[in-house]
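Forwarding the complex inputs:
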Amino acid sequence: MSFSFSLIAAVTAAAAVAAVGMRNLVHCVLALTLAFAGLAAAYLQLGAQFVGFVQILVYVGAVAILIVFAILLTRGSESANTPMLSKGWISGVLIAVLVLGVLIYALASSSALPRGIPPAPDIAVRQVGDALMRRFVLPLEIVGLLLTAALIGGVIIAMQEPKKPAASPEQGRAQRGPTDPTTHSHP
Amino acid sequence: MSWILKNLWLIAALPMLAAGLTALAPRRRRRFAASAAIASITGSLLLSLCALSHTMLSGGGRAREVFSFPWFQFGTDWLTLGWVLDPLSALMLVMVSFVGLLIFIYSIGYMAKDENFTRFFCFLSLFAGAMLGLVISNSLLLLFMCWELVGLTSYLLIGFWYHKPSAAAAAKKAFITTRIGDIAFLIGLVWLYAQSGTLLCYDAGRGCLETTALGAMAGQLTTFGVPVAVAISLLIFCGAMGKSGQVPLHVWLPDAMEGPTPVSALIHAATMVAAGVFLVARVFPLMAAGTGTTLTVITWVGAITAIFAAGVAVAQTDIKRILAYSTVSQLGYMMMGLGTGGVAVGMFHLITHAFFKALLFLGAGSVIHGCHEEQDVRCMGGLRKWMPVTFATYSIGMLSLSGFPLLFSGFWSKDAILHAAHNWTPSSVPFFLGLAGAFLTAFYMTRQVALVFFGNCRLNLGRTSSSEQRMVEHGGIAEDRVGNAGKLQAPSHQSDHGAEPHESPAIMTAPLVILAIFSIAPAAIGTPFWPWFQKFLGGETGPAAGIWGIMLASSAVVFAGLGAGWWLYGRKPVETSEAPDVLERLPADLFVILRNKFWFDEIYDRSIVAFTLWWSRACNWLDAWVWNGLVQLTAFAVLGLSWLNRACDEYVVNLGFDEGCNELRRGGRGVSRLQDGQVQHYLRAIGLALAALGLMLIWGCK
Amino acid sequence: MSPLPGYLVLSSFLFAIGLAGALIRRNAILVLVGIELMLNAANLNFIAFWRFSEHPEALTGILFVIFSIAVAAAEAAVGLALVISIYRHYKTTNLDQVNRLQG
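Prediction (whole assembly, three chains):
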C-alpha cells in the first residue's frame, strides 16, 4: 500500500463525499470534478494511461461542464430554505451502508484474489487503437451510433416546447372556439 | 251457400255498429243518433225479410242452413261459433227488427224532450243488435253472450233515468234477478259442453241438438236417476224463466216499467222477455229429450204464471204495471204452449203477442205522454174524446190481448195454446188454469180501458201530491208512480194545452196504427183452417178434434170477462179518483192480496234478501276474524322466515365474501402504495435488492 | 500482498457514496452525480482487475472501460436533458414533487 495510492484514495473519497454532501450545487460539481481527477490519477497509477486521459477528457472536460450547464439552466428551482435531503434520507443512508457492508464483506471473505503482483504491462496507445479497430470494431461502431442517438435524443428532449403548436387541430379549435362567430350562434 | 246466409251476421252487426257510432257522437247530435239507429234497424229489417223469403223459398219446415267459423283454440279443441238460418230464426228476425223499427220511430217522438236522447238511441241500437244476434246464433255460447248483452242493455235502459232512486233500484233488481236464472243457464251450458263436446246447435249431425248427442244424453243417468238431458234442459229452462219472468223469478219485470215506455214496449214486452221463450223453442229437441219431464215442468210453470199474473193485474192501478203483469201472464201462456203443443204453438203466440203488446205499451206511452206523465188509471178517464187514434188502436190491442173471437190474432194464438193444453194427457189442470187466465185477461183489460178511456175525466195536474199520499196509504205501491223528475217538460208544452189531455204527434201515432194492423193480420196465417205458420215452423198441426169446442169455450170465457169488466167499471163510471175500487167490496181481503202481488217482493225481502244480508254479515265476520287471522298468521310466519333468511344471508354468506373482498382491497392498496412515483424510492428498492443479491452470491459460493 | 484490495475498497466506498447520494439528495442533478460516481466506481474495478490479471495484454478491461465511459457520457447527456425537460415542465428539479407515476 504505497503512499501515493493512499493519498489518491483519500482525496478521491473525500471529494466524492463532498460531491454528494454539499449544499451548493456548483460546489458539488467542483468536488465531483476533483473526484474524477482523482480517479484519473488512480488509472494512471494502475498503468492505464489511455483510460486515464480519456477519463480526464470525458469526465472532467465534458460531463462536469455539462452538469454545470444543467445546474445553471435549472437555477430558479433552488432556494436557500428548501431542504437539501429527501424525506426518507435516513433509510437511504442505511441502505447505502448495507451495500457497502456487503461489498466489504465480500472482499474480506474472498479467497480468489491474486496474491502476487504481476509485472506492469507495457501497453501503448497504439495497441489500444489496434484492438479497437480490429477485434472491437463492431462494438465501436455501435457505440458511435449510440452516441449519435444520445446526441439527437438529448437535443430533442431538451428542445424548447412549442408554445402554440399549430399542428394540433384540437387545441386550435379550442382556442378559437368561443370567439369564432361561425361556430358560435347567438340564441 | 246462399249470400244471405253468409251475410246473416250483418243483421246483428248493423245496429251494433250504429250503437258504437252513436256512443262516439257528442250528446247534441240527436238527429245523427236517431237516423243512425233507424237506418241500421231498417237495414236489418230488409235483410231479415230477405232471410225470411229465402227460408220460405227453400221450403220452410225442416229447411235449415248453418254457417260456422272457428273462434279460438284451447288445448286441441277449436271453439266454433256460427249462425243458423231456419224458419224459427227467420220469423224472430223479422218480428224483432220490424217491432224494433216501429218503436225506434215512436221513440223519436216520445223521447224528444229528453236531454239524453243520444244515449237512449245508443242503448236501443245496442239492444237491437244483441237481440238479433241472439236470434241468429247457432252456438249456444254465442247465444249466451248475446243473452247477457240484452240483459246488460235492459239494465242500462231500465236505469235510464238513473237519478231516480226507484229506477236505479229497479235496474239492479232486474239485473240480479235474471242473473239467478243465468247462473243455472251457464251451468247447464258447461254441462252440455262436457257431455256433447260442442255448443253448436246444429252441425251436420254433430251438433248438441241433433240425434246423436241427444240420444247419448237421454240414455245417461245422473246420480239422482234423472237423465242428463232432463237435468241440462231444466238448468237451461231456469235461464229462460229468469229472462221471461216466470214465477218465481217474475218480480223484476213489473219494476222494469221504471224505464222509458218505448223500452218497456220493446224490451219488456215484445222482444227481450220473449228471448226466454225463444230459447226454449231453440233448444226444444233437448227439452223434449228423455222422459219429457222438462216439458211437464215448463207447462206447469207457464200455467201457474199465467193465472197468477193475470190475477195480480186485476188489482193494479198503474197503467204500465197492468200491462207488465199482463206480459208476465202471456209469457206464461207461451211457456204453456211450448210445453204442451211444441214450438209452433208457443212461437205463434210469441209473434202475435209481440205486436199487440208493443201496441198496448206504445198506446200506454201515448196516454202517459198526453196526460202529462200521469200513470195512475184512476186519475184518467174519458180520454177517447182527446185521443181518438190512441183510443182506437189501443182498443184493437186490448181486444187482441183479450182474445176477442175470430178477428184478432190473439184469439187464434191463445186458442191454439188452450187446444194444446186440452189435449195434454198428463193433466187437465193447466187447461182450466189457462181458461181462467183468459177470463181474467179479458176482465182486467176491460177494466183498464174503461178506466182510461171512458167515464169522465179525472185528470188533475194539481192533485199529484194528494194522489201520492193516498197511494202510500194503500200500501206497497207508492213506488208505482214514475215521477216527473226524469223528463224535461218544456213549459210551452203545458201552456199550449193547459191541463187538457192531448193527442200525441204523428210520429208516435203512426207506429200505433201500423202495429194495430199487425195485431190483426197474423191471424190469417195461423188459424186451424190454414195453419201455414205451424207448418212453416215444422210442427205438426195436431189433431183437430175438439177444436170447435175449445173455440166456443174460450169465446164464452172472453165474453164473460169483457162483460164482467164492463158491468163493474164501464156501466157506472167512476166519479172521482179517490173512489174505492169496486172489487174492494170482495170478501176475504182478496183484493188486498192481489193489489200487493201476493207479497212476493215482501216475502223475498224477508227471506232471500234478509238471508243474503245475514249470510254476508256472517261471511264478513268470518273474513274479518277467522280468515284474516289465518292470513295474518301466515304473513307473520313468512315475515319471520324472511328475517331468518336475511340474517343468514347478511351474517354468513355476505360477511365471508365481504371480508375476502376487503382483504383483497387492503392488499391492493398496500401494494399500490409502493408505486408512489418517487424515483428514489424505486432506487432504494434496487439498492436493497443489490445487497440481497450480493449476500446470496457470497453465501451461495461457500 | 498486492494493492488490489485497496483499489477495490476505494471502489466500494465510491459506489456506496454514489448510492447514498442518489438516495438522499432531492435535486435530480445530484442524483445523476451519484450515478456517475457509481459508474466510475465500476470503471475503477475494471481497471484494477485488468492490472492484476494473468493476461493484461488482452486489453479487455481497458476496452470495456472505454466503452463504459462512452455509454456514461451518452447517459449523462440524455439524463441532463431529461432534467432540463422536467424542470421546464414542473418548474422544479425536486424529485419529491415529481410523482406523476404514482399508483
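Confidence is low (pLDDT under 50) at residues 462-497 of chain B.
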